[in-house]
Structure formats: C-alpha cells, structure tokens
Write the structure tokens for this entry.
Amino acid sequence: MAHIHEQLSNEQNQTVQTMAQSLREEGREEGREENQKSVAINLLKEKMDVAFIAKVTGLSLEKVEAIKNEQT
C-alpha cells in the first residue's frame, strides 16, 4: 500500500484521501441508520407510539410509519 501511495501525485493522494473519508462517513451514517431502524423495530414490537419512536430514534414520522408497515 505504501508503494502505491508513493506513486500518486499530491493531488491524486488528496483525492484518494477525500474519497476514503467520504466512504468512512457514509459507512458511519449507514450504521447509525441501521441502529435507529433496529431500535424502532424493537419499540414497535413493544407497541410503542410512532411519535414517541420518532422522537427517541431521531427518525421522521414517515420513516417510522414505513418501518411499521414493513413489519406487518
């Protein structure tokens, strides 16, 4: 990997680093969304109110409703 790094120009190296950072952030966001969805599913199983679930998870009411519809 270091060998490849040495062959890249500074501009190319910056581009690669920017892309890598973007992918890491995207992965974290996807992971966060999956966790929110998982919590919402568990709360729905406990018959909790959709508005409460949206507030607790940070998901929109529409998203929680969509998850609820997926579960039924």
